[in-house]
Amino acid sequence: MENADIFLRLRDFLERMRQPSAADFVKSLKRFIVSFSNIAPDPERDSARVQEFFVNMEAAFRAHKLWVGCSEEELESAGEGIEKYVMTKLFTHVFASLPDDVKGDEQLSEKMSLIQQFIRPENLDIKPIFQNETSWLLAQKELQKINMCKAPRDKLACILNCCKVINNLLLSMASSHNPPGADDFLPVLIYVTIKANPPQLHSNLLYIQRYRGQSRLVGEASYFFTNMLSAECFISNINASSISLEETEFEKNMESARALLS
């Protein structure tokens, strides 16, 4: 129902932007997008420009006669509409725009491909009561959708959906006297992420950090996104001790995985 409401509000935003009195807004959006076409990507500069543009545009339409009397939900939807429109147009220019980003994607994906061949829930100290690999498949599928989206909000939604599936499963499997905490959630998220090995995860996380409106990356979204960043960091730095294996056993497993994948 929430997604249906969001869709209707976005449609209302687009209808308002088609009104003659919104012509200046439309020109500003198009002019801003075109300004990116002839300059080399610079994520730090580009992120600052985009964030500033979102803030200025949102202030402008909130004061415009087309949105007089609108509810906060409708105004919020207009802000989401601007972000989605702008970032969909700029996507190919700013996503994975640097060689270092591409390299980071390749290294992270390769590591997950190897680790997923032998890692087990107990390697991450996931309690037996919370181990349910069949149910985790749904969380993996949600995370694997991330590369199908272009808008930062839509990519973030894939992460939130994955996290909510995990959270709900943990709650359903926990006893009433021992509810799951962050120490239970993060290891499962790490395991699910390794098994899912979503494409270009590193670049997707950077993209959300850089181009999701900062005023909207708060609350539950911020909490789950921070956990996803922690999962990426953990996976990038996995070694024998971090997954409770002897060094020789870890190296043997890695060599076997490399042989299998090659």
Protein topology:
Blueprint (H helix, E strand, L loop, with lengths): L1 H16 L5 H12 L8 H20 L9 H23 L4 H17 L17 H12 L7 H22 L8 H15 L4 H11 L7 H18 L10 H15 L1
Helix pairs in contact: 1-4, 3-4, 6-7, 6-8, 7-8, 7-9, 7-10, 8-10
Task: Report on this structure.
By secondary structure, the chain is mostly helical. Helices cover 69% and strands 0% of the residues. It contains eleven helices and no strands. Helix 6 packs across helix 8 (182-196) and helix 8 crosses helix 10. The N and C termini lie far apart (46 Å).
Strand content: under 5%
Major sheet summary line: none
Query: Rg, please?
Result: 21 Å
Number of helices: 11
Q: Which structural class best describes the helix and strand composition?
A: mainly alpha
Low-pLDDT residue spans? none
Mean model confidence by pLDDT: 91
- What sort of overall outline do the alpha carbons produce when their principal axes are compared? globular
Q: What series of H and E elements makes up the topology?
A: HHHHHHHHHHH
Number of strands: 0
First-last Cα distance: 46 Å
Features:
262 residues, mainly alpha, single chain, 11 helices
